[in-house]
Amino acid sequence: MWHDMLTVQLPIAEKVLRTVLVYAAMVALFRFSGKRGLANLNTFDFVVIFLLSNVVQNAVIGPDNSLLGGFIGAVTLVVVNALMNRWAVADPRVARLLEGTPTTVIKDGSVLEGASRRLAVRPTELEHAVRMQNGERIADVASARLEPDGQLIVELKASAGNASRADIRRLEERLASVESLLRAMADRPSGGASAYDEKRPPD
């Protein structure tokens, strides 16, 4: 039993090469499938993700079902992924090539139809993303871009943005001044002359 579990049934170099090639193929597929393939997955996307693991399994491990063979494949995947991440951080050109660049999908409250069709993003998905970022509707958006990782970054119009602490503080100060003025008017005798009347010269 232990012999079967620990005996690698393929040359280690072949197993590493298989894993690297499959990893590269998956990166290319996700790169060209569009940004929405990495986020906001719908039912069809989940089906593809679940089936992909079974489809490429034999391509990675080949006829090798040993425990040690699977461990070698797993280590290869983790190492290759870590190296790719470090390479992308060190070289912005590699990051642009592998991950792409942001795409503007909403401008001045209107959906850019060409960009949304190219990315296969439905208006309902954009509306949901806008509401998740404190907007009420697409018309409230000044600009929205879809990042390479599939995240939608929304910039609301100034008229639609939430009030800041400074705005609230200014409003409180104005309300306090109005309340003070109302109290002063209420305390003034109704039949008496006002301060303006007292200082007004006689006709």
Please provide a written account of the structure.
60% of the residues lie in helices and 9% in strands. The protein has 2 domains: 2-99, no CATH class; 101-185, bsu07140 like domains (CRO Repressor, 2-Layer Sandwich). Helix 2 runs antiparallel to helix 3 and helix 2 packs across helix 4. A hairpin with a 5-residue loop joins strand 3 (141-146) and strand 4. Strands 2-1-3-4 form a 4-stranded antiparallel sheet. It has 203 residues and is an alpha+beta fold. It contains 9 helices and 4 strands; from the N terminus they run H-H-H-H-H-E-E-H-H-E-E-H-H.
**Contiguous helical run count:** 9
Report the C-alpha radius of gyration, rounded: 32 Å
Helix content: 55-70%
Largest sheet: 4 strands, antiparallel
Order of helices and strands: HHHHHEEHHEEHH
Q: Which regions are unreliable across 5 or more consecutive residues at pLDDT < 50?
A: none
The structural domain count equals 2
> What is the chains' assembly state?
single chain
General shape: elongated
